[in-house]
Amino acid sequence: MNIEVQGPKRMIYLLDGNGDVAFSISESVVTGWLVILIVLVLCLILTKDLKKIPETKRQCAAEYIVKTVNNMIETNMGVDFARYAPYIAAVFSYIIIGTLISMIGFRSITADISVTGGLALMTFVLITYTKIRYNGIGKYLLSFVNPLNIISEVATPVSMALRLFGNVGGGMIITIILYAALGAASGALYGLFGIPEMTSGGYFFNIFQIGIPAVLSVYFDLFSGAIQSYVFIMLTMAYIKMGKE
Fold it and tell me: Which residues of the chain have pLDDT under 50?
């Protein structure tokens, strides 16, 4: 049983005069563009022909989403942070769609540490901005007199990036391992009944790989992906609010 876990593939690349790769765009970037396009299309559909009094289910759905995000911001951060609602909604949409996109054959963008690191870095910038805005640049710089505060500053984006990447990437690896194990179990079962392999190697289909991987995908991609998206934005709101204190 051979198991191989690879990182994001090179989808677009340019070669130099020697035939070496001079510039490349990874699978995560291309899929990320697709996620942005999906979010854009959904926004355009939900916000088309808006009325003061909702007349369509589409507008009702759009208003429900907006109210839900605003209520979540006010509950967890306070009214003063209402302006962060678009950012929280955008990050949540990007993460959850970028994670669930694996259910239609694409690689989850959150299984790439560079993606989760970028998201964590954006949140870190907002945290720093909030601290400086409410406490002043002087007090912010003086806080680094205590070495523990330096460690805390560095640990915040690192922990957020690794938490999201670890859960999504770990789920992907577990699924690959289980899928390979189910293939090996199917081969062992066929061997007991004397069923030969195909001439090209392996079998036409592995019986234990039918249905079971789909159930695992529902958990690791759908359930776990939604949970991790929610956890990320909850941590984002908590850390930004702490910057005011």
Answer: 199
